[in-house]
Design goal:
Layout: H1 3-47, E1 51-54, E2 57-60, E3 64-67, E4 70-73, E5 83-87, E6 94-95, E7 99-102, E8 105-109, E9 117-120, E10 126-135, E11 141-151, H2 155-159, H3 172-177, H4 202-220, H5 224-236, H6 240-248, H7 255-258, H8 267-279, H9 285-291
Parallel strand pairs: 2-11
Antiparallel strand pairs: 1-4, 3-9, 5-8, 5-10, 6-9, 7-8, 10-11
Helix pairs in contact: 4-5, 5-6, 6-8, 8-9
Length: about 300
């Protein structure tokens, strides 16, 4: 009789003793699971950080436009209202979208990236180190990338291809390389030759109008070089108002109206662009040409 209780007590003690390792195993598995979940969450957070993708070297030529291929993603990791800050561009360069916030520095919205282009004036050359920064609405730096803009001025001539400046025909060096006879132009002829008004599609006109508006904004900020470049591209697309606006930046009589200071007038350039505006149908071009002696 005295042995029965002792047997039941032994069983209970053995049961409790066997439960300890099982509890330890469960606790160990739970800790491992929590650790794995924490690692997965940390990995997901790290992989969700936005990044910038851009070519290491962007090859460009003066007096033209070059695609500025920048991608930012993943989309769900990019905060709303963030934008790109592009630093290190040549001071006379301009971007087809965004606005200049300092010489060589532009702010660009992410929505403009698919059509973003670098526009360079004639005579640009050399290499520039560009820094592209993704900036949050609070000014925080979310991502950064670097690229080199390589401007090769002589590339087309080395290939023997006709090279054009912003508005003119192939230059003398190109004509000679092509083996064409060189005929001196008449003394009173425009060395660039008359250019017929281009056929402008609605899409081209809309783009040219955007360039004109951006040129106006740059001029208001005192960035004359960028404004001229934007006006020039819009005029090349066939927008008469852009040719008039560009001519005015060289016309001393317009400097007061435009509030331009610290730049020199260039009657020859003013006359050339007023003439182009007249060809494109600008009503006021004729009067300004007479004023500066262009007709």
């Amino acid at each position: 009789m005295n042995g029965a209780p002792t047997g039941r007590g032994d069983k209970r003690r053995r049961s409790r003793a066997s439960a300890v390792p099982r509890l330890a195993l469960v606790a160990s598995l739970a800790a491992a699971l929590i650790g794995a979940l924490g690692s997965a969450q940390a990995w997901a957070q790290a992989s969700a950080r936005p990044g910038i993708t851009v070519a290491a070297t962007i090859s460009a030529e003066p007096a033209g436009e070059t695609a500025f291929g920048i991608r930012v993603g993943p989309a769900d990791a990019v905060p709303r209202n963030s934008f790109l800050r592009v630093r290190g561009l040549p001071p006379m360069a301009a971007l087809s979208e965004g606005h200049s916030i300092a010489p060589g520095t532009w702010a660009v919205s992410l929505a403009a990236l698919p059509d973003l282009r670098i526009m360079l004036p004639a005579g640009a050359a050399g290499r520039s180190e560009i820094v592209i920064t993704l900036v949050g609405v609070d000014g925080s730096v979310l991502a950064e990338a670097n690229a080199t803009l390589a401007i090769a001025a002589a590339r087309q001539l080395e290939r023997g291809q006709p090279r054009r400046d912003a508005t003119g025909p192939p230059n003398t060096a190109t004509i000679l390389r092509a083996g064409a006879p060189l005929q001196p132009p008449p003394e009173d002829a425009d060395p660039r030759g008359p250019a017929p008004p281009p056929t402008v599609t609605p899409q081209d006109r809309e783009r040219a109008q955007r360039l004109l508006n951006k040129g106006d904004a740059q001029l208001e900020e005192g960035n004359v070089s960028a404004a001229r470049l934007l006006y020039e591209r819009a005029a090349e697309a066939g927008l008469a108002q852009a040719a008039m606006a560009l001519a005015a930046t060289f016309d001393a009589a317009e400097f007061t109206r435009l509030k331009l200071r610290g730049i020199d007038a260039d009657p020859k350039e003013a006359r050339r662009w007023y003439e182009r505006a007249r060809q494109l149908g600008a009503a006021d071009a004729e009067e300004r040409l007479r004023r500066i002696g262009g007709r």
